[in-house]
Amino acid sequence: MKRQAKPGRATRGARLSAEPVRGFLGGGSATEHPLDLPLQAIALIALEAEGLRGILTILDPQARRVRGWTIDDDGSRSFAFVAEEAGTYRVQLAAGAGAGNYRLTLIQTLSLEERVRPVANPRLESSRIQQLRAALTVRPERALASFWREAAAEGTPLREADPRDPRMTLCTFLWRGNAATRNVRVHLLYRTTLPNDYDLALLPGTDVWHTTIRLPSQGRFAYTLLVNAPSLAPPDIDSAPEHKLLYFAVSQADPLNPRRCFDEPGSRYEALSPLVLPDAPPQPWTQERPDVARGALRRVTFKSELLQDERHVSVYTPSGYSAGAKPYGLLFVFDEQWYLSRVPTPTILDNLLADGKIPPLVAILIGNGPGDARSRQLPCHPLFADFMVKELIPWVQRHYNVTAEPGRTIIAGASYGGLAATYVALRYPERFGNVLSQSGSYWWQPPVKPDRSNEFNPYREGNYIAALVIQRPKLALRFYLDAGTGEIDRTGNGRSILAANRHLRDVLLAKGYEVHYREFVGGHDFLSWRGTLADGLIALSAGWAGAGPPPDC
Question: Angle at which helices 345-354 and 526-541 pack, to 10 degrees?
């Protein structure tokens, strides 16, 4: 995604405190508000914007970027970050095209002593750690230096075969601590874990923090390390926004893992670390290839009269696109921003077309509206479905040479996007004949109160979509569903994506639908979805003119 141009030199504003700081920024201007923080403190800041559009950036005492956020709508929001060193930080506001008023408030600071939580002993200890323990009894300084050299050269997590189960790999996560380190935790996007499941322990007399986790050798995972994590239970979907911000303010990429994913800004606090184990399935279409012709990508701002908002929409047209050709197949994908930055959708389409795996198609990537529009509009929202059919499709058909056949139209999304894709297709099967759902949130149930779209009551009937399928006659729809084996419920909140997808699969099959179903060894993250998107497209476009054979699902 394109970034806004950097503004000119920022003016210095008032120091941040519990008393609100107010100001006005003209288009293209910037201002900075200093904030003094002790070592390892977490700061929680609130911003209220009116008309202002731009970027809020946290700069450390050396003027290095810590975190940044885009300001693209009015209203109030909160931000949190951790001070890696003591000193004066700067909260920089840079206006883009939109001038406006703002109000900044320091809501809370948490010192290291106030927020650390106790460390649990690891459940496993790898042979590498056992060997280090033994070496430390002979020549401790040499053993420790050698261990860190080997870890840096090999990259973390350190991996070794599980002697008890050849299908598993022992993964040892490391952190090199200092006097300020109180605890370290792995946040692995694999399973909903209980508190302290993935804590690192300090090897006595050293700076080695470690834990070993047994993981399936077919797995592909994204993870971060939480250093000096707050004494809070890990947040879930029900947690207050401030809880999530404070907890994940210390979340960062693993400095000993040489690979990063989703690392556009360059700060390790805005990136994740990938862990791809030896038997993970390949993702052959996610990398750009110099010999493959590229399609074109056009981004527009789309205003909706029905929804009374606006959003970005990106349109992909394949290489060689012609307005005079046979109408192209049509693909709609929700969460445009993520399916450009975290899932390289244009690259995947280019490669699939070059390899003859799918027929030529036009892809419409649909962004979310401002604020909390995603959580309000994607979960089974009738008006949003109407927007798709009554506003977006007519616009696409006016501007592009695309099919009107539902059988050559795919609607796709992940998580809430998968839920939305299924709901919209059930509501308008005469427009959408194929559903591609990645880890769809089929646990969802209509909330008791309309403004509580995330609310879930485990004592009420879940899987609203499955109930709709049962109630309605069989429609002319085809489905591709996938889910991760780690998307289970271990905390009792009732939101198992894996169980809900299996349930929906069985209901669809019992109803007589064509269903391509796949489970991958991974969690609720784009690192897996960027690979399975191609599987879904190949499966659902099989039988179209120019398509390849379907995969085994």
Answer: 40
